[in-house]
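Request:
You are asked to prepare a plain-text protein record giving the amino acid sequence and the backbone structure tokens, at your earliest convenience.
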Amino acid sequence: MSKLKEMKNNSFPKVTMEEWVDQAEKALKGKPVSKLNTVTYEGITRKPVYTENDRNIHASKQLIDKSDWTVSQQLYASTSFEELNAQLIQELGSGLQSIHFAAFPSTEPNALVIKDQTDIKTLFNDIAMDGITLQIHAGSSATTFNNALIDSGMETNNLQGIIGADPVGELAVTGTLNQPLNQYYDEMKSNIEWKENNAPFLKTVWVQSNAYHNGGASAVQELAAVMATAVEYLQELMNRGMSIDEASQEIAFTFPVGSDFFMELSKLRAARVLWANIVEAFGGDEKAQKMTVHATTSMFTKSNLDPYVNMLRSTTEAFSAAIGGADSINVDSYQQGKDAFSRRIARNTHYILKEESFLDKVVDPSAGSYYVENLTNQLADEAWKLFQELDKLGGIVEALRTNFLQDRIAEMKGKRLKDVHNRKKVLVGTNMYANLQEELKWQISTKPIEENEHAPVKVQAIQPLRLSEAFESLRYLAKVYQEKQGIPPKVTLINLGSLATHKPRTDFSSGFFQVGGLQPVVSPSFENAKEIVEWISDQNITGYVCICGSDETYEELLNAAVMAVNSPNRKVLVAGLPDATRQRELQEIGVSDFIHMRSNCYEQLVKIHQEMGLTDNEA
């Protein structure tokens, strides 16, 4: 038999789950395999291995039937519509396939404020719309934009894409609407009637999950809120004479895609399952059950610190969106700016995924994965339960009026922020691996959300945030201190024992302080307290001092080192976490605190900032 035939005939022996568990527990030295389980923010337990027994327990249809996606890139406000027109022409010639922007909504600080037909004529001047998709988020109502479009005389019969409104999404972010919801729903129906006669290939309702995602919601909360919003629109449109098939095909969806790769791609797949089930329950046919999904890279995960890392974050998020079956994907530039370079990099991310990774060549590539199928179905099940809770309350609007949804999301946001603060959730370049040499650039929104006290509809707004904001604030304060004092704020690291023994905690401590903008000053390696006293005296060390060494070195040198360092003009920290008795002993001789893997890094840095006087520079 030839070697090739022999190889083809060989196969791995079949292994039972029990045998795998037995071997795994041996590797874990007797600990149960369940120790490898992790629980997500959605309350879903991730296991270390999945088998065909974990596959879809529901009979599922093929909900993703295409492999390619539209290359989208949001257009932001600039100095003039002439500049934006030139930018669009250049980008459409360089791979852009969609004209995507927000018009009017207060939820988007960089929205294009379209005042009249002149702005539309200027923006679309010399742009042939054949083969180009429109993606225009028109805020709470598309009426103003559509009227300007009509007045411009622009040919609309062959326009493709979305000019869509989402009044409930606007309400969730801003907390107010300027007219009663029924009025918005009347306008929604009126805009559908206009499009049926003038722009039959457009969709006119665009449900956005940005409010919930950027407010810190879990994937389950995001899915439930979006589905409840879509059901609200379905019911209102059907109340105004539309059939379920007509109403459902007017609706498109946007989902920001975050950093949890498998959770986010499963979120998009679960959304299709939920939507199909909802439309089917209303009596919609198979065509009506198809979902139009636009995905966008997440603002929630981005940082102003070490901004090039945002490029990497956006790439993995776009990858997740493509695998999840998005119909179009917006990749934001790494600084969320308007410069041509960063926008080009973002646009080319699509083509790396398409042309070099071949993601546009396979339909639903994650289908059949035991893990992804299981996660998709668990997400759909959990989101359905929450959706039913929202329905029992009276729907999405009542859930917002009673703060039911806001309270749930606030609780989830608190968990996420706690994990960032204690560095259980790592943000590279922000709460870990900070670069103190980078030139800090700060982006401040110039369009804060304004409350309307007399608004006919009012709820508690879901305030958007970025996970990195707390650590950005620390770095900013340290920067202002350095500009005023001429030197950066510093923490001295006192190293006990040989380099090999103290290096792990020295490196940990350096990273710990750097994420707060504090520059570590690293001492030589000391073998006794006398060397410490002489060095500190020569260097004139004041302020915060952190002692670093191994547990074995601490037994021999730590007490003497603390007493050598302790003085009225110094605060003494120790790297490591001794037991409670030992902590009390060290505190009695001058240790003020301990830094370690389980520290709430942010809270400790805030305290250090306060005691060093850095918070005096707050605006």
About this structure: The longest helix spans residues 370-393.
